[in-house]
Specification:
Keywords: Membrane, Transmembrane, Transmembrane helix. It contains 6 helices and no strands. The protein has about 130 residues and is mostly helical. The chain has one domain. Helix 1 packs antiparallel against helix 5 and helix 3 (about 40-55) packs antiparallel against helix 4. The longest helix has 24 residues, at about 85-105. The chain is rod-shaped. The two termini are about 35 Å apart. About 25% of the residues are buried.
């Protein structure tokens, strides 16, 4: 995965982890969600959808499938979280899944692209000749 995409997914993962920790607190998280008429769940669904799109469409990402599945699971968990008691358990589940998401993003190799330089004038040379002619 490219460095900028890794930074974006890592930032979104940390934000979602902190949100899920807060919303999973019994009583406080539920009162916060109900007082804002379920708007925090709507923002969570939107952010998980953005994470899903970014991770699914990144062709340079080795862990594209697992990151996409985790983001889609977060999207579904927040749809289920509209039910009050069940929602608390969904937020607890998503805390652990977001920790896994962050570890996957951190441990995914960075994509460097083609790092060799092609020179059409020196195309027929061997490596030894190339090093000697530098």
């Amino acid at each position: 995965m490219k460095r900028m995409m890794k930074l974006i997914l890592l930032t979104l993962g940390i934000i979602m982890l902190l949100k899920e920790i807060f919303l999973g607190i019994p009583g406080i998280g539920g009162a916060y969600i109900l007082s804002l008429a379920w708007a925090p769940l709507g923002t969570n669904i939107t952010l998980y959808f953005i994470m899903f799109i970014l991770s699914a469409l990144d062709r340079t990402n080795e862990a594209r499938f697992s990151l996409s599945v985790l983001a889609f699971t977060g999207l579904l968990a927040n749809v289920i979280a509209f039910f009050p008691i069940l929602g608390m358990f969904m937020h607890w589940l998503m805390v652990f899944l977001m920790i896994a998401y962050i570890f996957i993003v951190i441990n995914t190799r960075e994509y460097r692209g083609n790092t060799t330089y092609y020179d059409s004038y020196r195309a027929g040379e061997t490596v030894r000749e190339y090093k000697n002619n530098k």
